[in-house]
Amino acid sequence: MVAEMRELVLGGAGLIGTELARALAARGHRVTTLDLKHGNDLRRPLDPRPFADCDRVWFLAWDTGGAKYLEAADQQHEQYKNNCELSLRIFDALARTKNLSSLRPRNLPVCPTHTGRRS
């Protein structure tokens, strides 16, 4: 039996984050998600409590640009800036809570049929 873990999914309302949060909850883990779609702008100063109260952090939050960047090369600088700010805030929150070890992969849920070999 796997012990309950406290999981923090950054970008938990995205395509991958939603499925990851669902899979972790199905395994009996306590899941907290932070996502811009739910009002958590990770580019702004962050409340460190969710970072201190977790065993593992899943860093899936990222500005992928979307349609607004496809034909607007002048907007790509804003995308890069957003991602740098996002990373800075997240790693700052982890450092302030002394929880940088929560990013180390351990006991990752993987597809049971995946062998890790390429054909």
**Spatial strand order of the main sheet:** 2-1-3
Total of domains? 1
| Element-level helix/strand string | EHEHEHH
Cα gyration radius (Å): 16 Å
Major sheet, described briefly?
Answer: 3 strands, parallel
Mean pLDDT: 81
Molecular shape: flat
> Helix amount, in percent?
25-40%
Could you name the CATH homologous superfamily? NAD(P)-binding Rossmann-like Domain
CATH architecture field: 3-Layer(aba) Sandwich
Under CATH, the topology can be stated as Rossmann fold
CATH class: Alpha Beta
- Work out the helix count: 4
Number of strand segments = 3
Describe the protein's architecture and organization.
- The chain has one domain: Rossmann fold.
- It is 34% helix and 12% strand.
- The protein contains 4 helices and 3 strands.
- Strands 2-1-3 form a 3-stranded parallel sheet, with helices on one face.
- Helix 1 links the parallel strand 1 (6-10) and strand 2 (30-34).
